Amino acid sequence: GQSLEQPSEVTAVEGAIVQINCTYQTSGFYGLSWYQQHDGGAPTFLSYNGLDGLEETGRFSSFLSRSDSYGYLLLQELQMKDSASYFCAAPMDTGRRALTFGSGTRLQVQP
Amino acid sequence: GAVVSQHPSWVICKSGTSVKIECRSLDFQATTMFWYRQFPKQSLMLMATSNEGSKATYEQGVEKDKFLINHASLTLSTLTVTSAHPEDSSFYICSARTQGETQYFGPGTRLLVL
Q1: Exposure string for B13-50, b = 16+ CB within 10 A, e = fewer
Q2: What is the DSSP annotation of chain B?
């Protein structure tokens, strides 16, 4: 089986930097993805790490350490619109690639 | 990027009726689509894998006779919630994967069973 753990809530102010951690336990590992979901909306893809290291996409970066079974999403220059839920997710198996989602982290950006 | 659509976006129905939700990949072909369900303030949970031209694969605890899945073409999968009850009220989201690792999600269908 697979499980991905995240903090339930994070609060930060506009312009700040916030890190959302994800630790995982999987029977096999096929990469870690990050998704953003605003209230009432569907998840949107943010980033993917297949190998160790940092992936940068604009204000968002994601890091993976396979030896530590750990990853994080880094959001810089926070904006009010970044208030949302963030999920880490990992493919269940090498074939289907259906995703197991983490428990989700609700980010609240304050002025 | 790839686009996945869902229809309807929301539906309200009476208990005991059936509801069909469509999921379409608009600009790519998807031999496999996935159906997820999300209850309020919870994470997404995989319900089933929809395979074009073959039977769907259901996750443990998901009743295949209640949640009928048909993947009739490379761009369309449908989920039918049969004899819906209030406990089936949820946010149903489909996704499809292109050749890469990215999964593209539909906008979701919010179902409310009265």
Answers
A1: beeeeebebbbbbeebebebbbbbbbeeeebbebbbbb
A2: ---EEEE-SEEEE-TT--EEEEEEESSS--SEEEEEEE-TTS--EEEEEEETTS--EEPTT--TTTEEEEEEETTEEEEEE-S--GGG-EEEEEEEE-SSS-EEE---EEEEE-
Dihedrals phi, psi of A80, to nearest 5 degrees: -60, -35
Q: Which residues of A touch B46 (CB under 8 A)?
A: 92, 98-100
Q: What percent of chain A has pLDDT over 70?
A: 96
Distance from CA of B54 to the nearest CA of A (A): 14
Q: What are the pLDDT digits (tens) for A75-104? A: 999 999 999 999 999 988 756 678 899 999
How far apart are alpha carbons A92 and A31 in whole angstroms? 10
Q: Which amino acid is present at A3? A: S
Phi then psi for residue B101, to 5 deg, are -90, -10
Instruction: Name residue A46's amino acid.
Output: L
Query: What number of C-beta contacts closer than 8 Å exist between A and B?
Result: 52
